[in-house]
């Protein structure tokens, strides 16, 4: 990695040169410099949320772009290549355009994801069955804890025309 080496034609050079000067001697305006900072000789970009991303030169940016693309190519792109690079703490000025162009030109990234769909069905008893059995026939389960619970909760229900209704606090049917 080219952490401390910045060539003359690198996009980072003017920013580093200006940040190295005292504030009154800087040639770039504050708006251009406000999101950048030097930390141990490396240039960082401060994102809106305050996270720092290391500024990469063109060669290192291309290496990172292709490395991350090769790792994620063909996977579902719920998280775009650009966002993955941001999460890795990378920044260069045209990162969004380059990552979008690379994804658009890659046939594996354009293929629809292969989702394996599984439908799980469980055959469970209706929660109302114990209450219906108790209210219709007085039948209770054999477990004593369930007997007490069903007998207490059954007071909240009433059957009307084979439909189980809950009784509200005011006594009306819900």
TrEMBL record:
Gene3D superfamilies: 1.10.340.70
PANTHER family referenced in this protein's UniProt entry, alphabetically: RIBONUCLEASE H, RNASE H TYPE-1 DOMAIN-CONTAINING PROTEIN
Official protein name in the record: Integrase zinc-binding domain-containing protein
Organism expressing this protein natively: Macleaya cordata
């Amino acid at each position: 990695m080219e952490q401390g080496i910045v060539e003359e034609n690198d996009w980072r050079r003017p920013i580093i040169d200006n940040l190295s000067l005292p504030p009154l001697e800087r040639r770039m305006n504050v708006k251009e410099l406000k999101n950048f900072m030097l930390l141990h000789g490396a240039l960082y970009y401060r994102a809106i949320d305050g996270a720092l991303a290391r500024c990469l030169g063109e060669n290192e940016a291309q290496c990172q772009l292709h490395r991350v693309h090769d790792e994620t190519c063909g996977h579902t792109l719920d998280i775009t290549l650009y966002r993955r690079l941001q999460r890795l703490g990378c920044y260069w000025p045209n990162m969004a355009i380059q990552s979008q162009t690379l994804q658009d030109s890659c046939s594996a990234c354009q293929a629809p994801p292969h989702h394996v769909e599984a439908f799980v069905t469980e055959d469970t008893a209706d929660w109302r069955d114990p209450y219906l059995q108790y209210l219709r026939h007085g039948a209770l389960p054999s477990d004593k804890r369930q007997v007490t619970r069903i007998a207490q909760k059954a007071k909240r229900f009433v059957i009307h025309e084979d439909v189980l209704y809950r009784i509200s606090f005011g006594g009306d049917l819900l």
